[in-house]
Design goal:
The complex is a heterodimer of chains A (175) and B (314). With 175 residues, chain A is α+β, with helices and mostly antiparallel strands. In chain A, a hairpin with a 2-residue loop joins strand 4 and strand 5. By secondary structure, chain B is α/β, with parallel strands linked by helices. In chain B, strand 1 and strand 2 form a beta hairpin. Helix content of chain B is 43%, strand content 27%. In chain B, strands 1, 2, 3, 4, 5, 6 and 7 form a seven-stranded mixed sheet that branches. A six-stranded mixed sheet of chain B has the order 9-8-10-11-12-13, covered by helices on one side. The chains are: A alpha+beta (175), B alpha/beta (314). Chains A and B meet through helix 1, helix 2 and strand 4 of A and helix 1, strand 7 and helix 4 of B.
């Protein structure tokens, strides 16, 4: 009689143990599923916020001190990029790698159109400055029209020369 | 007979109940534990998203040739924003930490949103649902950055006897927590000619006093950007942001030196590189707001030199 009871008891204990393992596994699966969905949502939101950042930044970046013309070309100008200053910035860009929180900053002349990338050798006869070009997954570019001004020598005088350009910014794609 | 009943009853009841109690307790524990974790992580997600959104909304505050820009942010829940600043090289870090009120208690999160190109001047902690922000460019002698002043709509500042141009600027801002007349009793009084106020401004000496603390400010061409920064800031935040601004100024000085080389290749015959190097050295020595007045004189000289150049650097 005693033996029978203990066998039955052992069975029930085993049943209970299996049930607890099953319940734990069930909960773990539910949590993993939930986390996967919410993590996807967080990643999507993060990428969306980065894109929003790039979109708002591109409309104002031209006015930041590292880019803006200031009074160098006669009076204050909005959305005016100093080509000479930006080219000087390109040489010492290491410190600015994370400064604006974006992955790519390009400036491309659109009139007159020129696809040649600016280097020490060809400046200012070039049309594309890749100021920041991180090798990471990036979103599509947000862009804004700007005037790209520099000083140029004409015979005996130094003149201001401004061309139409497009400022392009991309941010990290976290999705 | 008595013993037998007891034993049988005890065994039959115990397994059913034991299973229900242990499994039930286990399920309840898991549910409560996971529930609290999920609520905690959703709090952190909301704080991180709100913090990032605030940082993004600061982008339009970048000014071009206008004197000031303003905006406001409304958050659905009561929020505590902690302004953290560090001044390590190359540019220091501006960090915002957000905690939101839930069931009358602050949900503490460790989420911090950092940026390197923003300079926010505020009290160490500001609380509310609506926050006002306005910005002014800081030139020393060229533009270094836009200074952003953040206040809670609940904190009302009342400016008494301010110079007319400051009064005009404040009324033009049309910000409901910045007043120049009809000051409520509970408002923070900012006085320009008296010491019996919460904040005393000595405009001619370039000093802002808050109790025992003194904030020093200066500016080129009567710029009030640092004065507003001192009024709205915590002392530690103010001094840290000053150091960060000097770090950026030093880099900009290097940038203008490099630009001058490019201009010389183009044909400009100007050379103020020695003066720029000397100015950079002075900037490097600035440790706090008190040292700014020593640099101001040199900054004004450099500004005059720039205006005389054939090819102006800024």
């Amino acid at each position: 009689m005693v033996k029978e009871f203990s066998k039955k008891g052992q069975m029930k204990i085993q049943q209970m143990a299996f049930m607890l393992i099953a319940i734990t596994l069930f909960f773990v699966l539910v949590v993993v599923f939930f986390l996967a969905i919410s993590l996807q949502g967080v990643r999507r939101t993060a990428t969306m916020l980065e894109e929003e950042n790039a979109m708002l930044l591109v409309s104002k970046l031209a006015n930041s001190p590292e880019f803006s013309c200031g009074n160098s070309f006669g009076g204050s100008r909005a959305n005016c990029i100093d080509f000479d200053k930006v080219f000087a910035l390109k040489k010492t860009l290491n410190k600015y790698q994370n400064f604006w929180g974006v992955t790519k900053i390009y400036i491309r002349k659109i009139y007159p159109e020129d696809e040649i990338e600016c280097t020490e050798e060809n400046y200012p006869n070039c049309g594309l400055i890749k100021l920041l070009d991180k090798n990471v997954n990036s979103t599509s570019f947000s862009s804004n029209f700007v005037s790209l001004c520099r000083k140029e020598k004409f015979v005996n005088s130094i003149e201001d020369k401004c061309e139409i350009a497009i400022l392009m910014i991309a941010s990290e794609d976290k999705g | 007979m008595k013993k037998y009943f007891c034993k049988k009853g005890a065994i039959e009841v115990s397994f059913g109940w034991l299973f229900a109690i242990i499994a039930g307790a286990f399920i309840l524990f898991l549910a409560i534990y996971l529930g609290s974790k999920i609520i905690g992580s959703s709090d952190e997600t909301i704080s991180a998203e709100t913090g990032k959104e605030i940082t993004i909304l600061l982008n339009p505050l970048e000014t071009s040739f206008e004197n000031a820009q303003k905006t406001s942010i409304t958050i659905p829940a009561e929020t505590r924003i902690t302004n953290l600043c560090s001044n390590e090289t190359p540019f220091g870090t501006q960090t915002l930490q957000l905690d939101q009120k839930r069931f009358n208690a602050w949900s503490k999160t460790d989420i911090k949103i950092s940026s390197y190109n923003k300079y926010i001047f505020s009290e160490k902690e500001i609380v509310g649902k609506k926050f006002y922000l306005f910005s002014k460019p800081f030139n020393f002698p060229f533009k270094i950055a836009n200074l952003i002043y953040m206040t809670s709509a609940d904190d009302v500042y009342c400016f008494k006897d301010a110079p007319s141009d400051i009064e005009r600027e404040i009324s033009n801002l049309n910000q409901s927590n910045l007043l120049i007349e009809n000051c409520p009793d509970e408002s923070i009084k900012v006085c320009f000619n008296s010491e019996s106020c919460d904040i005393g401004v000595d405009y001619s000496e370039g000093e802002v006093r808050k109790g025992e603390e003194i904030f020093y400010f200066t500016g080129i061409e009567n710029s009030d950007a640092l004065m507003y920064a001192a009024i709205f800031s915590d002392k530690k935040v103010y001094e840290c942001q000053i150091k960060r601004l000097m770090l950026r100024l030093e880099e900009l000085v290097n940038l203008y030196k490099n630009k001058e080389k490019i201009l010389q290749e183009t044909g400009c015959n100007d050379d103020i590189s020695t003066d720029l190097i000397e100015f950079g050295g002075l900037v490097n020595d600035v440790e706090n707001s008190f040292d700014l007045s020593a640099v101001k004189e040199r900054a004004e000289e450099i500004e005059k030199m720039n205006k005389r150049l054939e090819c102006m650097l800024w």
